[in-house]
Amino acid sequence: MSDEKPSVPYWHLYTDEDGISRQKRCALTRFELKSMQPPAAPQWQGEKHHDGMTVMVTVQPVGWEGTWHENPAPQWIIPLSGRWYVESMDGTRVEMGPGEISFGEDQGTRERDGRKGHMSGTVGDEPAVLMVVQFDTAREETTPCRFG
After folding, report:
1. Average pLDDT over every residue of 75-92
2. Is residue 144 part of a domain?
3. Which of 48, 81, 94, 104 falls 20 to 30 Å from 63 in CA-CA distance?
4. Per-residue pLDDT at 1
């Protein structure tokens, strides 16, 4: 087993100080090598977040495209199958599939040129199945890559 801490990439959709949504490539890096429940062998465990959570699975049909909107709450979005995209107000479009994750935290954006929050939809010829883990509380200020 390697003693080198892992680095897990994710996209962070956030609101900047001007109220514009942006996306930044980040990495989860805060890992500790320990057992989940002794005597199980140690594994790299990421930082725990203690907050009420809502967990759900959504299925976006082929060709689905949402309108411009903000995430209803700060939330991790984990594609289980299919592909989807997120476009932020700054024009950045990111496509993701299984194994790629995003943290949506674009609350508090200001409408600009008919855009507010982000646009998202399916990519390709199969539905996008997404697991969504919503935080029950939002932060006053968002900082890009705050989980790094």
Report:
1. 98
2. no
3. 104
4. 57
- Residue 39 domain-assigned? yes
Which of 28-32, 37-41, 50-54 has the least mean pLDDT?
50-54
Mean pLDDT, rounded, for 12-34: 95
HEC secondary structure over 68-89:
CECCCCCEEEEEEECEEEEEEC
Find the angle CA(67)-CA(120)-CA(98) to the nearest 5 degrees. 160
CA distance 76 to 136: 12
Residue with tokens 């199945």: 129
Whether 110 and 20 have beta carbons less than 8 Å apart is answered as: yes
SS3 state at 16: coil
Distance set, CA 27 to CA 5, 17, 68, 73, 147 (Å) = 12, 22, 26, 21, 8
